[in-house]
């Protein structure tokens, strides 16, 4: 992630933002803005994103003002008909009167909420190509001089998205994937934590909040189609991401969504590939992380158990994707079950899972095992509430281990004199037990 530095904001030079090199243009926003609720439809949202991409972070805009070309603005929206000027004016009107962000920030013991109209002033003429856009002063801290908790993504990706939901979801996925790339390169997080950024989870409630659909698409199948399926179809087709998802149930209801993000390979233009340093670094990081997880999986006792229950084959042991997937997503859940029921509890679970496995699930054994254990752990927790004696299973400890809790310096050492005295006492006790010397 690059750091945005403060610079001279008093330049009087007026530069009209050009879209000629749109592939190189980036948008940078604070994560609080990424997770805010955008109370606007796609057109005002895309105008805002376009305007943000015109902020020169090396020469910050005077009076929070940038200038756009109308013709290039129409190009961005792929508008060429005679009514484009009228529609542009309508979009500006909506943006100023109805479009705003609801931002939630952590503050002390709770949260602070803000409602900000991001672009309160727009000026243009019918005889000139230039459009003046002024950002509200309250939105600027989320756009400039950001040193942490920010996300950067490509304007060209947003340009092709035609749904408000796909834009919001793309920004949220970018926020998580940026953290995956950052911590993969810099460290500071455990392997499982890093992988969670590439496979982020969000509750349905939170997803409805950021997409502003709390009161819309009440039926889950309709919500899935409109907000998830349609958006991901656009994202996968037009952006640098390939994204899949799975639903996680809690009881009978869908509680959360887990996304799986992969970055696309670049086009076969060799010069373009060589310039994509981020892609090359990401590829190397993925390979290194996958290798590390594979080694850990091969050493894990759970791999042996899966083999014994015929849930893994010897051929699977040569597949790094399967082994790294198990280590990242399945084995941590087995650790939870082991803590509650011991290793025997894990074996019992695997025996049941093996008996229920269908042929189709063998094609994606990681997903099958992950789904199975995620469905079983809530049952274990419920059993522990109903039968406390089953909770927190732990292997009985030896007398020596218990003694060490009370005698930290305890050592199992006996002197020769003490051994001789013990042998004498034992001999006397044996005589009495045999009735001798009475």
UniProtKB/TrEMBL annotation:
Domain Lactococcus lactis RepB C-terminal: 263-385
UniProt xrefs under SUPFAM superfamilies: Winged helix' DNA-binding domain (SSF46785)
Annotated Pfam families: L_lactis_RepB_C (PF06430), Rep3_C (PF21205), Rep3_N (PF01051)
Location of the Initiator Rep protein WH1 domain: 26-174
InterPro entries: Initiator_Rep_WH1 (IPR000525), L_lactis_RepB_C (IPR010931), WH-like_DNA-bd_sf (IPR036388), WH_DNA-bd_sf (IPR036390)
Keyword set, alphabetical order: Plasmid
Domain of life from the UniProt record: Bacteria
GO biological process, one term: DNA replication initiation
GO molecular function, one term: DNA-directed DNA polymerase activity
Membership in a protein family: Belongs to the initiator RepB protein family.
Name by which UniProt lists this protein: RepB family plasmid replication initiator protein
The species this protein was found in: Lactococcus lactis subsp. cremoris (Streptococcus cremoris)
Taxonomic lineage of the native organism: Bacteria, Bacillati, Bacillota, Bacilli, Lactobacillales
């Amino acid at each position: 992630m690059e750091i945005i530095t403060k610079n001279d904001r008093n330049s009087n030079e007026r530069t009209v933002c050009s879209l000629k090199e749109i592939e190189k243009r980036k948008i940078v926003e604070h994560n609080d803005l990424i997770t805010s609720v955008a109370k606007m439809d796609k057109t005002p949202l895309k105008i805002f994103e376009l305007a943000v991409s015109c902020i020169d972070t090396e020469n910050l805009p005077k009076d929070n003002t940038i200038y756009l070309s109308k013709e290039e603005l129409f190009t961005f929206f792929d508008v060429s008909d005679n009514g484009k000027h009228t529609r542009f004016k309508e979009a500006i009107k909506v943006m100023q009167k109805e479009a705003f962000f609801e931002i939630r920030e952590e503050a002390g013991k709770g949260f602070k909420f803000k409602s900000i109209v991001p672009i309160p002033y727009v000026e243009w003429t019918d005889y000139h190509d230039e459009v003046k856009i002024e950002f509200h002063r309250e939105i600027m801290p989320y756009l400039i001089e950001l040193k942490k908790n920010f996300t950067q993504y490509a304007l060209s990706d947003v340009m092709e998205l035609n749904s408000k939901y796909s834009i919001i979801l793309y920004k949220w996925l970018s926020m998580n994937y940026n953290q995956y790339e950052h911590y993969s390169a810099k460290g500071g997080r455990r392997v499982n934590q890093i992988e969670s950024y590439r496979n982020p989870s969000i509750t349905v409630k939170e997803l409805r909040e950021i997409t502003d659909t709390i009161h819309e698409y009440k039926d889950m199948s309709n919500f899935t189609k409109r907000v998830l399926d349609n958006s991901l179809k656009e994202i996968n087709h037009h952006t640098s991401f390939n994204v899949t998802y799975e639903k996680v149930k809690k009881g009978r209801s869908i509680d959360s969504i887990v996304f799986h993000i992969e970055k696309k390979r670049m086009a076969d233009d060799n010069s373009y590939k060589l310039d994509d340093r981020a892609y090359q670094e990401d590829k190397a990081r993925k390979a290194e992380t996958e290798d590390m997880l594979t080694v850990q999986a091969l050493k894990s006792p759970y791999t042996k158990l899966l083999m014994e229950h015929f849930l893994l084959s010897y051929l699977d042991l040569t597949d790094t994707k399967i082994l790294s997937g198990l280590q990242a997503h399945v084995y941590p859940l087995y650790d939870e079950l082991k803590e509650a029921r011991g290793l025997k509890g894990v074996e019992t679970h695997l025996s049941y899972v093996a008996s229920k496995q269908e042929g189709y699930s063998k094609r994606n054994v990681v997903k099958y095992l992950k789904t199975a254990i995620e469905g079983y752990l809530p049952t274990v927790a419920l059993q522990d509430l109903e039968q406390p004696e089953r909770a927190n299973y732990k292997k009985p400890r030896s007398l020596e281990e218990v003694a060490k809790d009370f005698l930290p310096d305890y050592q199992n050492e006996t002197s020769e004199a003490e051994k001789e005295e013990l042998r004498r006492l034992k001999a006397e006790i044996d005589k009495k037990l045999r009735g001798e010397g009475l």
